[in-house]
Structure formats: structure tokens, C-alpha cells
Specification:
The complex is a heterodimer of chains A (76) and B (472). Chain A has 76 residues and is α+β, with helices and mostly antiparallel strands. Chain A has three helices and three strands. Chain B has three domains: 177 residues, Alpha-Beta Plaits (2-Layer Sandwich), CATH 3.30.70.2500; 165 residues, 2-Layer Sandwich (Sulfite Reductase Hemoprotein, domain 1); 74 residues, Alpha-Beta Plaits. Classes of the chains: A alpha+beta (76), B alpha+beta (472).
Chain lengths: 76, 472
Amino acid sequence: MEDIKKAILEFAEKTKKTKFYFNEMEKAVRKVLPDTKARAVKKAATALINEEKLIYFSTGSTTMYGLKGRGQTEDF
Amino acid sequence: MAFEPREEQKELKYDELRIYSDEELNNYTEEELKNFKIKHDIPMCDDLEKGPWPSFVADSKREALHRKNLAKDRMMIDCDVVEDTLGQLEESFVDGETHWKHGGIVGVFGYGGGVIGRYSDLQKKFPSIAHFHTMRVNQPASKFYSSDYLRSICDLWEYRGSGLMNFHGSTGDIIFLGTFTEQLEPTFYELGHVLQQDLGGSGSNLRSPSCCLGKARCEWSCIDTQDMCYELTHYYQDELHRPAFPYKFKFKFDGCPNCCVASIARADMSYIGTWKDNIRIDQEAVQAYIGGEIPPNAGAHAGRDWGKFDIEKEVINLCPTNCMRLEDGKLVINDKECTRCMHCINVMPRALRPGTDTGCSILFGAKAPILEGAQMSMLTVPFMRCEPPYDNIKELVEKVWDWWMEEGKNRERLGELIQRWGVPKFLEVLDLPPMPQMVKEPRSNPYIFWKEEDVEGGWDRKIEDYRIKHMR
């Protein structure tokens, strides 16, 4: 779990995008930890949300993830 | 089966939960409403009030007047919110574009769905709708609720939001329209801890499952839709609130093929109650329909004289598979050919009833987008037993999700993924055999291709030899 969380945070800090889809995060984790299952990535991402390191961005129909403090952090 | 709640259910009493007094709720007269003008000039919105249908503009004006007459300290957001909403709508009509900015990072702690951020791009002109976030509230199964419950949530939203609500959104949720960011957590707390009410799904989540009236009110229901909806809603809480899917995913439960919640047209995974045995026939009642003693369609179309009921014309000849006939005055049904269209049962409910060996058919891939048009779901599992705790169904659900999460592109619904990969691949994922009914035009488009290992003895021919004559 800690490995996955670390891989997610590394990806979130490195990527040029301020928000990204779950599967982009999942692919990035698999590059570092090849056999990681989607559900494990989800659990780690949820833990990071609860630790307030990641944020959800929702359009209403689609949800993306982002690193807290990067890109849009305040209300418009 | 008696309802067994997962947690103790409180009896909600409006008298204990109410925020507003009767005087505050009835704080304007019809005369006052007639003379009421909102603070913005809205000729085009006013125009929407004309015509035979109820208008949201008329309802909004009522709410605007109601809020104007409430004391300012009795609402947590500005009392002008409804007037500004109408004012901005008028502005949008003039400019030919929306003035809402959609989406954002707002939400309640730990939830990836249930709140949709919305902001005005004319905040100086309409400050009371600078934020206008939507909250989706998971509707009770079959939308059964008491007036105490309804009054309590209306009071809550009047106090913490705009007072504007939708009953119900397309997915079934109760929609709270318009509030400021700082009111989201307090509203969620009140909903969860006082009203025992959860938020619904939005974004790339499992959306709030919805079901028809089911066995609670309908004798045709072949499955306990309410129980399935309740069980799967609880079991998949994580999928409902923590988004990890490529896009939205909807479950809908219909008790019979009449499909009252239109699962076949709107759900990625539709559960439709059906039966394995034969339609039950009461021959005496059939004769009573023929003799005109019982009105067809339970008298539903009795407002006009349609002439004498003609069973041949109105039932037998309309059967899509021609599986019915009258033999010596008796109605005979070749049940093997029945496609569960429900027409005969709907017309003669006293004479014909669904069978007793019941379960559900499972269909996949429907969607009803605003653009591009709807796609109906495909019958994939003709029959599956539906008994608590529904482990067989959960196993199927998870097979589908694993594949979709692995292969689905961003914003690709399950139906689109099935189209992209083809039905054979989808059946392979589910480990199900194909059915002849899945092939629409077998001679021109035989989309079931056999693999060598499926055919006894295999084959020697090579695809390259075939391509010499049949170029791509």
C-alpha cells in the first residue's frame, strides 16, 4: 500500500497535467509496480484523499484526481 | 420477505425536525404573488409561463417571494438566490450561451461523488449565485418516502441552500440545486446523521441504483427489486462514493419486462424480472374478457368507446412471435416462443399472469446521452436466480467491472466498450455461450467467429489463402 501511494504521489508531482484520470494514475503505478491491481490503486488513492494529499475534481459526469495544491485549488 | 435494514431506522417526525413554523412556510398570499415582480427584468423567462404546462419559472417566482418574506437570519445563503438564477437565465437567453461554469474540486470529505460544483461567470451582477453547487441525494428504493421525510429535507434545503430542488434527476436522485461551498459539509452532516440519508453517485462512479415499485405494489414483479436495490447499494458503497471507473455506471432494477424504470434504455447493467415456466392462464377470465364482462387493460383506456373487445385483433395478432392462438375457444400459448413483451398480460391482467419460476434477465450496455442518441441494452444473461445475498449477481458484476476498468477508455461507457471489442469478446469475459438471438443478420454479419479450438478436429486452411481472394 505504501509503495503504491508513493508511486501515485511521484506521478502526480511529475505529470504536466494538474488533473488526471484514474487509469492514467493506474498505468503510472504499473510502470513502477507491474502487478498492481486496479482495486489496490483505488484503495491507495482513497487513502491519499483521506490524508488530504490528493483531491477529486468532478465535472458531474466524470471524476479526475489531482495533487492538492497544484492547479485549481480554490473556488473560482 | 420482511425488510431488514442494515442499521436501525429512526422514525422521522417532522414536528421534531422542522426548521420553519407554519407561518413562515405560508408567508405570502396568492394576491401578493400575482403582483410580485422579481428584481430583474426577465421577459423571455416570463414567456415560458405561457402555455398549458406547469412552468419552473412560475415555481421559481413562488420560491423567490417566499424567501423574500422570510427573515434574513432564517436562511444560510442569500435570499435573492432564486431571483438571481432567473436573472442569469434571462441573460443566457440574450447572449445565446450559458453563464454557468461547471465542475470543480468541491465535495464532502472522503466522497468523490454526490456534489457537483457550479459557479456563475457573472458573479458581480448576480452575487447570490456566485456558487451554485448541486447535491445529489440517494433516493429511497422505489422513491417511497413519508411526508415527514419530504418536509424535513425541504426545510433543510430552504435553510442551507436555495430551496430549489428536482424530484427526481434522470438517475433517480433527489437533486438539491444551488448552495455555497461552506454549506456542503453541514448539509451532508444533517442528511447523514439526522435524516439517515446518503448522497448519491455522480462522476465516474456507480450511480445511485434505482428500482421500480416491485413486489411492494405490483403483482407482476418477478423479483424483489427493492431488496436488490438496497442490498447492492450497500454492498457497493465504495464504488458509489469513490470514483475509479472510466465513466459512469448505472444499475436499474425492473420487476417485470414492462420495464417501468426503463432499465433497458438507461442502465449499463439492467436487471429485468422474468419467469422460466409458463404464463399462468385463467381460461374463465379469458372468456370473461371475450364476453365483455371484464374491461381490457384493467379499464385504463375506458375514456373512449373502442368498440367490443376483440381478442384476435387486440391480443393474438399483436403477439410479436405469433405464439398465441384460440383452440376450441381456449387460449393456448406456446411459451417457448414467448419473448416476454407483456402485451397480452397488460391487456388481460385477470386472465394472464407471469409464471412462478422467477428470476431476472440481465442486459448490458444501455445509455441515454443527450448527444448522439440512446443505445438500448443487449440481452446477455437470459435468466439468473435473484435470491439474497445475490452472490451470483455480484460475481457477474465484478467480472464486468474488472474488464471495463482494464480496457475502457476514459469516458467510455460499457456499451461503447462492447461495441469496440465486439460481443464475442464480452461473452468470453463473462464466460457465457453466445445465443442465436444475439446475431441480428446471420447471413450478412455473422459476428460469432469460431476459434480453431472450438471446432472438433480444427482446420487446415490459412487466413492468408482466404485473403488472396477477399482483400480487406
